[in-house]
TrEMBL record:
This is Asparaginase. One of its GO terms (molecular function) is peptidase activity. The keyword ATP-binding does not apply. The active site is at 208 (nucleophile). Gene3D superfamilies: (Glycosyl)asparaginase. It comes from Karstenula rhodostoma CBS 690.94. The lineage of its organism: Eukaryota, Fungi, Dikarya, Ascomycota, Pezizomycotina. One of its GO terms (biological process) is proteolysis. Substrate binds at residues 236-239, 259-262.
């Protein structure tokens, strides 16, 4: 009896992690300051006629205004020129249409501009100064995205010879110089060329808010907002505004949000893959773990986080490189809850095998009791 109870407890824990608190439902990457966005999106669904798209915009906009963790909105993650640029994407789970902005300059309301791209154009992505021009033509005010704290931080970075940075195969040596840089001539047999193609996850990752909402009617939406990687090469765009990478949603199946080493993650379209995993019958947790493992096979040293939710609000996550957290609130919950997801390791995969064996043993034992 004791052994049966232990196995049953493991099964109950697994179900509890995946359970839905009912609709409406909001889930997003990260806890801590990001939970204000979860609450804002949830309350918009509970207390008004807001749609799933409205709730995503409210949530991501809240993070932009609050400068969540310094990685979303103005005043964070400057590039080599000490300028903050913003990336955002919003997607409707019914029509599958998305609107995005990348490298948006001098405009604070990135997710709102992305919503305008979705609703007032037949395009998906606008970038750089011309995205700013679009925003201004739609009534968004120009703003200085640099703060005094950011300017001080940037001065210190330059005094430290611009370390770290994202340059490789350039002259002067990017490990001891701020440039300007010139690319070194490469040939296919040179060590430098091989290094350029060799998987490299040595840079630190950055945080992003990626959010999925489910309206009480069952309609779904997703969105992402970020100010990108700190000290990035000017013009760099990461996974955030890329449909299927930073986030993705299909209201017939579910949605996904991603955070981490965006330059690596976007090579795998992780959120598109996660939703397709749901379509093939995987649980949200298994769908997320499968995606992270796909990336780890090629880039084992990076930091990645994936949160997945199905159309019923059942959810799960997976990460690598650090303890990933995500926040959710739904049904009649009085407060947002934060889930910590330990990084995937060989030991963790081994523990999962043990769990499966225990579950099978429990099922066999139950069948035996039924026969008696």
């Amino acid at each position: 009896m004791m052994r049966t109870a232990t196995i049953g407890s493991l099964l109950a824990l697994h179900v509890a992690v995946q359970a839905s608190p009912n609709l409406p439902f909001v889930i997003n990457t990260w806890g801590g300051p990001f939970t204000t966005a979860t609450d804002a999106a949830y309350l918009s669904l509970r207390n008004s006629t807001a749609s799933a798209l409205d709730a995503v915009q409210v949530g991501c906009s809240t993070c932009e205004k609050n400068q969540c963790d310094g990685s979303v909105g103005f005043g964070g993650s400057p590039d080599e020129n000490c300028e903050t640029t913003l990336d955002a994407m919003i997607m409707d789970g019914t029509t599958m249409k998305s609107g995005s902005v990348a490298g948006l300059r001098r405009i604070k309301d990135a997710i709102a501009v992305a919503r305008h791209v979705l609703e007032y154009t037949t395009h998906t992505l606008l970038a750089g100064d011309l995205a700013t021009q679009f925003a201004v033509s739609n009534g968004f005010p120009l703003s200085n995205l640099t703060t005094a704290e950011q300017a001080k931080r940037c001065a210190a970075w330059r005094e430290d010879n611009c370390q770290p940075n994202y340059r490789i195969n350039v002259s002067p040596d990017p490990k001891s110089s701020c440039g300007p840089y010139i690319g070194i001539a490469l040939n296919s047999s040179s060590p430098a060329y091989k290094r350029a193609l060799t998987p490299d996850a040595s840079q630190t990752s950055h945080d992003t808010i990626s959010m999925i909402t489910i309206h009480s009617s069952g309609t779904m939406a997703a969105g992402t907002s970020t100010n990108g990687a700190t000290w990035k090469v000017p013009g760099r765009v990461g996974d955030g505004p890329i449909t299927g990478s930073g986030s993705y949603v299909d209201g017939d199946v579910g949605g996904c949000g991603a955070t981490g080493d965006g330059d690596i993650m976007m090579r795998f379209l992780p959120c598109y893959q996660a939703v397709e995993n749901l379509r093939q019958g995987m649980s949200p947790k298994d769908a997320a773990e499968d995606v992270v493992k796909r990336i780890l096979r090629k880039y084992p040293d990076g930091s990645y986080g994936i949160v997945v939710v199905d159309k019923h609000g059942q959810h799960g996550g997976a990460g690598s490189g650090w303890t990933f957290t995500y926040a959710f609130r739904g049904g009649s919950m009085n407060a947002t809850e934060v889930v910590s997801v330990p990084p995937l390791t060989e030991n963790r995969r081994g523990a999962k095998i043990v769990y499966i064996k225990l579950a099978r043993a429990f099922a066999q034992q139950r069948r035996g009791e039924g026969e008696r």
